[in-house]
Structures are given as C-alpha cells and as structure tokens.
Amino acid sequence: xxxxxxxxxxxxxxxxxxxxxxxxxxxxxxxxxxxxxxxxxxxxxxxxxxxxxxxxxxxxxxxxxxxxxxxxxxxxxxxxxxxxxxxxxxxxxxxxxxxxxxxxxxxxxxxxxxxxxxxxxxxxxxxxxxxxxxxxxxxxxxxxxxxxxxxxxxxxxxxxxxxxxxxxxxxxxxxxxxxxxxxxxxxxxxxxxxxxxxxxxxxxxxxxxxxxxxxxxxxxxxxxxxxxxxxxxxxxxxxxxxxxxxxxxxxxxxxxxxxxxxxxxxxxxxxxxxxxxxxxxxxxxxxxxxxxxxxxxxxxxxxxxxxxxxxxxxxxxxxxxxxxxxxxxxxxxxxxxxxxxxxxxxxxxxxxxxxxxxxxxxxxxxxxxxxxxxxxxxxxxxxxxxxxxxxxxxxxxxxxxxxxxxxxxxxxxxxxxxxxxxxxxxxxxxxxxxxxxxxxxxxxxxxxxxxxxxxxxxxxxxxxxxxx
Length: 468
Fold this sequence. Notes:
The protein is an all-alpha fold. The protein has one domain (39-369): Hydantoin permease, CATH 1.10.4160.10. The chain has 18 helices and no strands. It has helices spanning 48-54, 60-72, 77-99, 101-105, 109-112, 114-117, 123-153, 157-174, 176-204, 215-231, 250-276, 286-291, 296-327, 337-354, 360-389, 407-423, 432-436, 444-458. Helix 3 (77-99) packs parallel to helix 10 and helix 3 runs antiparallel to helix 11. The longest helix has 32 residues, at 296-327. It is globular.
C-alpha cells in the first residue's frame, strides 16, 4: 500500500499499457492513445530534447514577442531584452522541471495532471489545452506559415494554408518518433537562417532608441506575453520524454528541454525587439517589416524558415493536442485512436485558421496574454503538488478513474476567475485594478499562479481508489 503524505492511502493499481509494437521506427503510425509506455519500448536520449524544443520556437511567432514589446508595449530595446529574458527564463524552468517526469512515469503530461486534479477534474486543464493547442496555437502558427509562403511564392494565402496544414497534420498523425525526427532535421536549417538574419538585424537596428512610455506596465505586459508563450509548452512537457528509459539522468532531461526552449525564445525575441526599432509597420505587416530589412536572397530564405518553423511548432501542437483530447476520457474503439484524433483536430484547426488570415498581428497580441491566464493557475497547482509530494512519484491509481481529487480544479478555477476579473487588461475587458492603476500593466498570470498555488496547498486533499 502506498501512502500519500497529504491524502488517504492509495491502493496499488496497474496502469493501462500502450498496445502494439512501435520501437524507434520513424515512418510508422504510433499505436494506442495516452497509455503507459512499456519499458521494452523505451528509447532515445536527453540530447534529442535540445532540438525538439529549439526548432518549434525558431519561427516568426517567437520573433513577434520582441516586436510586441517595442511596438505595442512601448519599451526600449534594452528594457525589452530584460523582460523577454525574465519571462522566457520563468517559463523554461517550469518546462524543464515537468519534462523530468516523463521517463519516470511513462505517461503524457495531461494524464499526470490527473494526480492533482482528479480524473474528472482534469477535464478543466485538458480541455483548455485541447482548445489552446489543437485549435488556438494551431491556427496562429498556420496563419504565420501561410502568409510567409504566400509572400514568397505569390500563391493565394488559402492555398498556402492548406499545404502547411496537410504537412503538419501528417507529422502529428504519425506520432512521437516522426515528430522528434522532423524537429532534428529542421533544426540546422532554421538555426543557420535565423542566426544570419538575426546578426544583420542587430547590426542595423537602433538599439539605443528610447521607448514610447511603456514603463512598468509595458515591462509586465512583455513578461506576461513571453511567459505565456514559453509556458504554453509546459502542458506538453512529459509528452516528449515519456519514451526515454527511466534510468536516464533527470538533470540532463530538464537541462536540454529547458535550454532548448529558453535559448530559442529569448534570442529570437531579442531579434524581434531589435527589428521593431527600425522603420516599417511592425504591427500591421510584421512579416514584411522583418524580412524587408534583409538582403533579397536571405529575405526569401527567411520566409521559407518562417513557414518551416511554424510547421515544426504545429507538429507538436497536433500531437500533444490529440493526447490532451484523449486525456479528457474520449474513448474510440481504435488501436491508433490518438492518430485519428490528431487528424480530426487538424481539420478543425484549418477551419479556424481560415478566419485568421486577416489582422494576424493584433489577434496574436491578445492570444499570448490569454494563454497565460490559464497556464499560470494550472502551473501553480502542478508545481505545488510536486512540492507536497517531496519526491514521491505518481501512482497508477492517481491517474485512473478512481482519482477523486477536487482541490486542484477548485484552486485553478478560483485562480483564473479572481485574477481575470480583477487584473485582466485586454481590449475587450479591463479589470478594476489596471483601470485604477494603468501602470500595473497585466499581472493576471502572476496573481492566478500565486492564488492557485496557495489554495491548493491549504485546501484538504481528496482521495484516490482503485477501480477495476
């Protein structure tokens, strides 16, 4: 019998094991859904996490973080650098910590989330993640790639959108091994193009240009937007480490995952901030404004890299979004049910993206902050649960139908409702706190994180019981 320090005894239980043989084959549809990965199917090494988390962020959505800091939030270049590094650092640390849980448990992140939220209570974060990744991020990145391809080729945006959606859904449909392989081969191409382009942008930017009055509010808005972007990957963290053997170094897993996501987000965000100090309509035409400062051949290669980077990001969104939908308890009588869900999510994401081909820049600004509104409280619960465990692993019973925890969803919901109602600072709604003190910017994610963490720590624990 295993005893949890803050709950009633939990009966032992065998986790559902993923069916079929998969191994390290790349061109093979990953079988099963979100079940435990058996030990004889484990493979890979921590180093692969470096490119798996670098490639998806070598795209224009990351560059646009820096553009927003200067062009929308009114910071100077160096203020933007500080805010971007802080926001990316906070998100990367959380991502590295959660990534270490995959090899130990062999389960996706949103299945592990049941330990803190309960089997049914986990519908709250898993449902939000399904919408955010399978639809929201999918649409944002698909639009970015389509506009870049349309600029490069002169083809209609809708046709370019259809092409990139087909490519990224195909990668996500095949599953884990192809996702890792795709990110690996895209990594050197994206790194070379963006490094060369970044050096040129930094060399020609006006790095001493003053800000336009962003102040503390603009700084916190940039931290929140950057954190929202980076931490938006945390609900996927264990998805890409659950195939690693349990004996791998946890420190190496956390280091490579965190370093990959921090280095790419911080560096490209800084390049974006530099580009916003140069002439051009950074918000109205962000892609054209960025590539317009590059020599002709490099500008064309950068447009291609923008499209490729978006596909890299959406391959993860399709794959992890399908795992989150399966984590909702959706049952399909199919051996490859995750793959089927991935295909269906891709179709829905394509339809949403069709409506986002206009005014992409301003829509992205709001989306980044809204993502942080739920990620912050979810992380507050998950990280507090880790502290309370004092190193004890999640048991199978805690992720099964018998897990009846309620304090997780209550803490997260309260954190979201209170922080949004009082501190939200969006064009559609401004809470009473930023309305009275505009200089505070948007600290919704900070308040939501702290409130959810405190509530989860003080509320009484639920229970888990074994179910046949």
